[in-house]
Specification:
Layout (H helix, E strand, L loop, with lengths): L1 H14 L8 E6 L6 H16 L3 E6 L4 H9 L5 E5 H9 L11 E12 L2 E4 L14 E3 L7 H11 L8 E3 L3 H9 L5 E3 L7 H6 L5 E3 L4 H10 L4 E5 L11 E13 L4 H13 L1 H5 L23 H9 L7
Parallel strand pairs: 1-2, 1-3, 6-7, 6-8
Antiparallel strand pairs: 3-11, 4-11, 5-8, 5-9, 10-11
């Protein structure tokens, strides 16, 4: 009798076990640790995990803007942060891409801005970005969007990218290389304050190189997608004055294959919890629903578009 009851209990336990539902994985491409993208995407992943049922989101460390677009374009990740003009180039199959990635969709194109910031040691004889010709320069990690930007900016200043001795390193290693005098300057093409430079500046004196007005204006005139930006005085130790520079807009993107309802829920979760995103890094402290769709260069995901239309902030066609 007890054996029969035991068997019956086992059978009933299988019948009443709660069903296990598969989770939807959302992998989000960032960049190297120490940058604004790494912090912001970490916050976005937490927001999704805590507010969108049935989804497991994770931030993926990558080579940066170009690498992210390739990963998203080949559907190895589902979301990423990249430079808006890089997303546009990828969607159209323009250099440095050899094919068009038609599945890229905008979610939040006005996430933050990337600034051209070039650092050297305080005692260096280099004062302007235009003086980097022939110098050993850490230009960014392989695959980062900064490489495309430098290939555009340097020629306006009178020299080619190939006329600097380029060194490729993750951002978290770049300032150490500068301190060890293995490089003459470090390019940190990201929002300010660049954490790697900020931390390095607590123990070493550094200098943020200037961009001569004639070259800054020339870049803005030749490439309309560049922005006229300023790194405020006091951003870094020893920086007593504003430093004018140029930069580009950065946005959050998604694979078109992600379900529209899920894209809607993710977009909604981000703005329902925007304070958490703003607190993740100074570069995203001004993210707002009212300006979210500004700066878009490729079409929006239908789920995100639906949310923005509901909120009355849609600026597209």
């Amino acid at each position: 009798m007890f054996k029969k009851m035991g068997c019956l209990t086992i059978v009933l336990s299988f019948l009443f076990v709660a069903p296990v539902y598969a989770k939807t994985m959302i992998n989000i491409g960032t960049a190297g640790a120490g940058g604004s993208w790494y912090a912001a995407v970490g916050a976005i992943a937490d927001i999704i995990n805590n507010n969108v049922d049935g989804v497991v989101a994770s931030a993926q460390t990558t080579g940066g803007a170009v690498a992210n677009v390739k990963l998203l374009g080949t559907r190895k990740i589902q979301m990423c942060v990249t430079i808006n003009v890089v997303a546009q180039s990828a969607s159209e199959g323009q250099k440095p891409f050899t094919e068009a990635y038609s599945n890229l969709r905008s979610i939040l194109p006005n996430l933050e801005k990337g600034f051209l910031q070039v650092f050297t040691l305080a005692g260096s004889d280099i004062n302007y970005v235009s003086e980097l010709k022939g110098r050993k320069v850490m230009v960014g990690p392989q695959g980062h969007g900064s490489l495309i930007r430098l290939r555009q900016i340097f020629p306006v200043m009178g020299f080619g990218f190939d006329e600097v001795k380029a060194v490729y390193l993750p951002y978290e290693q770049a300032m150490t290389a500068l301190g060890d005098k293995k490089v003459d300057a470090v390019v940190l093409y990201m929002a300010y304050p660049a954490l790697a430079a900020k931390q390095f500046g607590t123990t070493r004196d550094i200098k943020l190189l200037r961009v001569k007005d004639e070259y800054r204006k020339a870049v803005l005139a030749k490439f309309p997608f560049y922005l006229d930006l300023v790194v405020p005085a006091g951003t870094y130790k020893g920086q007593k004055e504003d430093v004018k520079t140029v930069g580009t807009g950065n946005g959050l993107y998604m694979d078109s294959g992600v379900d529209a309802d899920l894209a809607y829920k993710i977009t909604k979760a981000i703005f329902d919890n925007v304070e958490k995103l703003r607190a993740s890094h100074p570069s995203v402290k001004h993210v707002s629903l009212e300006t979210a769709t500004q700066g878009a260069l490729i079409e929006f995901h239908p789920g995100a578009m639906k949310y923005y239309k509901e909120k009355g902030v849609w600026t597209g066609k």
